[in-house]
Write a structure and sequence with these properties.
The chain is mainly beta. It contains no helices and 11 strands.
Length: about 130
């Protein structure tokens, strides 16, 4: 079983940066693909970024390409989301998710394919 805990959210001005962390339990962490999703009030959860178990493959939503970077450190059981050039529309609760067995060519952006979810961390981008 895996438990995920996000941290690093907060209030930042437009154009600023934040680095989110997701700490995972279990020695099997390195075999899980990991993803970040976000959800704004009144909107459905949307895909942000994902990374394969080895870190060799990364995927991004078009809205964050070039601004966000996902990475992982399996030795520390942690996945990161570096967010630069933040915009007000990035405001949301950000969730970390783990996928034990990715399936299909678009596994990374399908929320219902992930097995474990964190509680989320609030990111607010505002002046």
């Amino acid at each position: 079983q895996v438990q995920l805990a996000e941290s690093g959210g907060g209030l930042v001005q437009p154009g600023g940066s934040l680095r989110l962390s997701c700490a995972a339990s279990g020695r099997t962490f390195s075999s899980y693909a990991m993803g970040w999703f976000r959800q704004a009030p009144g909107k459905e959860r949307e895909f942000v970024a994902a990374i394969t178990w080895s870190g060799g493959g990364t995927y991004y939503a078009d809205s964050v390409k070039g601004r966000f970077t996902i990475s992982r450190d399996n030795a520390k059981n942690t996945v990161y989301l570096q967010m630069n050039e933040l915009k007000p529309e990035d405001t949301a609760v950000y969730y970390c998710a783990a996928d034990r067995m990715p399936q299909g060519s678009r596994w990374y952006d399908m929320a219902d394919g992930y097995d474990y979810w964190g509680q989320g961390t609030q990111v607010t981008v505002s002046s």
